[in-house]
Amino acid sequence: MKVLALEGSPRRGGNSSILLDWVLEGVEEKGGQVTRLYVRDLEISPCTGCDGCQVAGECVVRDDMDRVMTLLLDSDHLVVATPVYFYHLPAQLKALVDRFQPLWGRRVLLKKGLPERGKLLLVGVGATRGERLFDGVLLTMKCVAPFLGLVLVDPLLVRGVDAVGAVRDVRGLKGIAIKKGMELVTRG
Ligand SMILES: Cc1cc2nc3c(=O)[nH]c(=O)nc-3n(C[C@H](O)[C@H](O)[C@H](O)COP(=O)(O)O)c2cc1C
Fold this sequence. Notes:
Helix content is 37%, strand content 18%. The chain is globular. Strands 1, 2, 3, 4, 5 and 6 form a 6-stranded parallel beta sheet that branches. Helix 6 links the parallel strand 4 and strand 5. Helix 1 packs across helix 7. The protein has one domain: Flavodoxin domain (Rossmann fold, 3-Layer(aba) Sandwich), CATH 3.40.50.360. The two termini are 13 Å apart. It is an alpha/beta fold. Bound molecules: flavin mononucleotide. Flavin mononucleotide (FMN) binds next to helix 1. The site of flavin mononucleotide (FMN) has 19 residues, from helix 1.
């Protein structure tokens, strides 16, 4: 099982990064093969809405998104780890997600979408505790999963963590995260 992991926080070694470490520990424990990309280190231009992909079937812009797409299409599962930034994704990760537009075109316009092949696991953190904290992020993941040929599975969402490393103080969380990773590559 190949798992592509996108580390979406601009903050190095932060809460979503630590949670992702644990999830991927579980993946590897069960023999999954992990490729981890640090979105903050990639050069990915925002989508300009040029509609070039609707003609070419792929994005006309050449940058690190080429690598993301190649790895994504070669993976069984995808893990996206992110903090909430004003009820949504950090800008760098949102830019990457917007560049999935060619896959939307393939499915919706050309009716040649990717077949369902694996799972998408969202790992999210936020400082506050409101019930709707992850609504924006979840809606986006729910929207893109079918274009990627993935099924959105029960996410790992942690509220009330702000300072770097705060996730380490949440009792039992490491075990839950490792189990999530194991389930990703073993269950159904
Ligand atoms: C620009 C910015 C916007 C944020 N917006 C929210 C928000 O809307 N709601 C919230 O609960 N936390 C918000 N936070 C706090 C982060 O989600 C929180 O610190 C999280 O633990 C950071 O995760 P990381 O360590 O993986 O970067 C924001 C932080 C930043 C820097």
